[in-house]
Structure formats: structure tokens, C-alpha cells
């Protein structure tokens, strides 16, 4: 029954009969169809078929969890922790995860990884590695082993199913085209996938950078295969009112050839090592982009390079409406 209802609702939506699609799902949801509840929640989160309503999405997820939808349970944990549709609460999210872990091995794995972390009652780190200054202008530091091998593997695992070739919108045609600067595959770990392990690591990045977690864009994972690279570029966004002021790069693996990060303006080359993080300022004290922060990821010659990037803004952002 569920598959047929979901299929029919999507067909109605695609044909423009949005009201009929919503009515069909709502009727099924009210009759206890857990997949219909989940579909409605997703539509409320995405904000295309229905207006985005994070609070309503949370309510729908709660109903789905009560019936026993595993994916809804993990999504509810993520949204509870990052405050989508309600106030953020690490304590409440952790309690939900513990409940989910009773029957869900994925939730149990996340819980076990959290138990290895040095974090406080709010998921913030209680210790950090000492930064090694690599450059003073621009300010570039390295945090050796900011992430453990298990944490790196978890981040890569979360992102792997979502990886797609890097693309940009062609300003002439308005069509998506291959990114001419970054030739990797990438995926952003948005609010619905920001499980408690990812959330704790984002808090660690925030602490290392001296910023609030709300200033960071969703953690983006990049995979570079042989020949792929990130050509010289600045991370700042032209004309942005809420500018990117810092970048954190975390190398998720090692054992590949090539892929060094270079800052040509200061003659600095950083050789990737799994778990190490590079933090650098992207703007001058005036707030203008710093040309010396121009950097590149050299081509990978052999193997695959995995990297996690968090771009940090001057002010907190809404991860649902980034611009």
C-alpha cells in the first residue's frame, strides 16, 4: 500500500496536482501509513511541493518515529541537535539517539563513536591539539590529528552516497555545467544528515577556529581521483554580505600520491595527512578578500584523496537558505 501511495503522490505532484498529492498522503498518514508521514516530512523540509515548515516537519517525523520508522528517527536526532524546527538541544538529541540505538545498528555505531570523544554535556570538545603556525600573513595553522581515523571514516561514509561531480551554474545559459575550477566529486552534509557525530565534529571545528558553530556552512566532503584537482582560487564569495572569513580543511585519508594544498602567495605547500586540519583566514582586517589566501589542491596522481571543508562566515547563517 505504501509504495503505491508514494508513487501516486509523486506522480500527482509532478503533473501539477499538488493539492491532490498532499491530500492523498495526508489521508494515508492519518490512517497510520508511516511512509506517507515520512514523505510529508521530507516535502516540508525541502519546501518545493509544500511550503517549508521545519516545525511541522519535526511533528511529522515524531509521528513516524512513534510508529517505528528508522530513518525518521535518525533525521529527528539530527534536527533536534542543530535546532531545525525548534531550539537546538544536544541532550534531547542524545536521548533520542540512545532510544533509536536499541533497535538500530547504525544509531548504535554513532553512539559508540560518540563515547570515544572528549566532549562535554553539550557535545563541545573538552580538548584540542595545539595549533602549529604555518604562516602569519595570511594566518594559516595546522591542527595535527584534529579528527581520529574512525571519525574521518565516518564523515566519508556519510557523504559517499551523496557524492556528485562538482558543478556550477553557467551564467550565460543558467544550466548546470562541470565546475572548471574544482574537478572533484563533492557532497554537502546538510541539516538532515548532520548526525550527532557530524555535529560534534562541527563543534570541534568551531572551537578550533574560535567561531560559533552557527557561522559554519554545512560540512562539505570532496573526493579527488587521479587527475582531479582544485585549481588556484579564493574561498570568498564576490559581493556576499555575509562573507566567508575562514576556511577549515580536514584531510580524511592518506596513502595517495599528489593532492598537496599549496598557497603560492606565501610559498607554502602542505602535504595531506589523515586527520590533520588546516585553518586559514580568507579576508584582511578590512573585511576584503585576502589575495594571499589564494590556494589550490594539486592534482592527485594515484589513489583517492578525501577532504572535508567547512567554510565559516562572518555571522551565523541559516543552513536551509544559504546565499
Strand-helix topology:
Layout: H1 2-14, H2 18-30, H3 34-46, H4 54-67, H5 70-82, H6 90-101, H7 105-115, E1 131-136, E2 139-143, H8 149-159, E3 164-165, E4 167-169, E5 176-178, E6 185-189, H9 196-209, E7 219-224, E8 230-233, E9 244-251, E10 257-258, E11 261-263, E12 268-270, E13 277-281, E14 295-297, E15 300-302, E16 305-313
Antiparallel strand pairs: 1-2, 2-13, 3-6, 4-5, 6-7, 7-16, 8-14, 9-13, 9-16, 10-15, 11-12, 11-14
Protein name: 2OG-Fe(II) oxygenase
Domain Fe2OG dioxygenase: 215-314
GO molecular function: dioxygenase activity; iron ion binding; L-ascorbic acid binding; oxidoreductase activity, acting on paired donors, with incorporation or reduction of molecular oxygen
Whole-number total of structural domains: 2
List the total number of helices: 9
How many angstroms does the end-to-end distance come to? Answer: 40 Å
The CATH architecture designation of the largest domain is: Sandwich
**Secondary-structure element order, N to C:** HHHHHHHEEHEEEEHEEEEEEEEEE
Largest sheet: 8 strands, antiparallel
Strand order of the largest sheet: 1-2-13-9-16-7-6-3
- Radius of gyration, CA atoms, in whole angstroms: 21 Å
Task: Tell how many strands the DSSP assignment holds.
Answer: 16
Strand content: 15-25%
GO molecular function: dioxygenase activity; iron ion binding; L-ascorbic acid binding; oxidoreductase activity, acting on paired donors, with incorporation or reduction of molecular oxygen
Organism: Sphingomonas alpina
Protein name: 2OG-Fe(II) oxygenase
Cofactor: L-ascorbate
Amino acid at each position: 500500500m505504501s509504495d503505491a501511495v508514494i508513487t501516486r503522490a509523486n506522480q500527482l505532484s509532478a503533473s501539477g496536482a499538488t493539492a491532490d498529492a498532499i491530500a492523498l498522503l495526508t489521508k494515508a498518514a492519518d490512517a497510520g501509513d508511516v511512509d506517507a508521514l515520512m514523505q510529508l516530512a521530507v516535502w516540508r523540509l525541502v519546501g518545493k511541493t509544500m511550503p517549508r515548515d521545519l516545525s511541522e516537519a519535526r511533528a511529522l517525523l515524531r509521528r513516524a518515529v512513534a510508529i517505528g520508522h528508522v530513518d525518521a528517527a535518525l533525521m529527528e536526532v539530527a534536527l533536534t541537535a542543530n535546532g531545525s524546527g525548534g531550539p537546538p538541544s544536544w541532550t534531547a538529541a542524545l536521548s533520542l539517539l540512545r532510544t533509536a540505538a536499541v533497535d538500530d545498528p547504525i544509531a548504535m555505531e554513532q553512539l559508540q563513536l560518540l563515547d570515544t570523544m572528549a566532549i562535554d554535556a553539550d557535545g563541545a570538545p573538552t580538548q584540542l591539539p595545539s595549533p602549529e603556525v604555518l604562516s602569519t600573513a595570511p594566518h594559516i595553522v595546522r591542527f595535527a590529528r584534529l579528527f581520529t581515523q574512525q571519525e574521518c571514516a565516518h564523515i566519508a561514509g556519510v557523504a559517499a552516497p551523496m557524492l556528485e561531480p562538482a558543478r556550477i551554474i553557467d551564467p550565460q545559459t543558467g544550466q548546470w555545467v562541470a565546475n572548471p575550477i574544482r574537478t572533484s566529486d563533492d557532497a554537502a552534509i546538510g541539516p538532515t544528515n548532520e548526525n550527532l557525530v557530524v555535529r560534534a565534529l562541527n563543534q570541534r571545528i568551531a572551537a578550533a577556529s574560535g567561531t560559533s558553530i552557527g557561522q559554519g556552512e554545512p560540512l562539505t566532503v570532496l573526493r579527488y581521483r587521479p587527475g582531479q584537482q582544485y585549481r588556484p582560487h579564493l574561498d570568498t564569495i564576490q559581493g556576499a554580505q555575509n562573507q566567508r572569513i575562514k576556511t577549515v580543511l580536514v584531510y580524511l585519508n592518506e596513502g595517495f600520491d599528489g593532492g598537496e594544498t599549496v598557497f603560492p602567495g606565501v610559498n607554502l605547500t602542505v602535504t595531506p595527512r589523515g586527520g590533520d586540519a588546516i585553518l586559514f583566514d580568507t579576508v584582511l582586517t578590512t573585511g576584503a578578500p585576502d589575495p594571499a589566501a589564494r590556494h589550490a589542491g594539486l592534482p592527485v596522481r594515484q589513489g583517492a584523496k578525501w577532504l572535508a571543508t567547512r567554510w565559516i562566515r562572518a555571522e551565523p547563517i541559516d543552513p536551509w537558505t544559504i546565499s
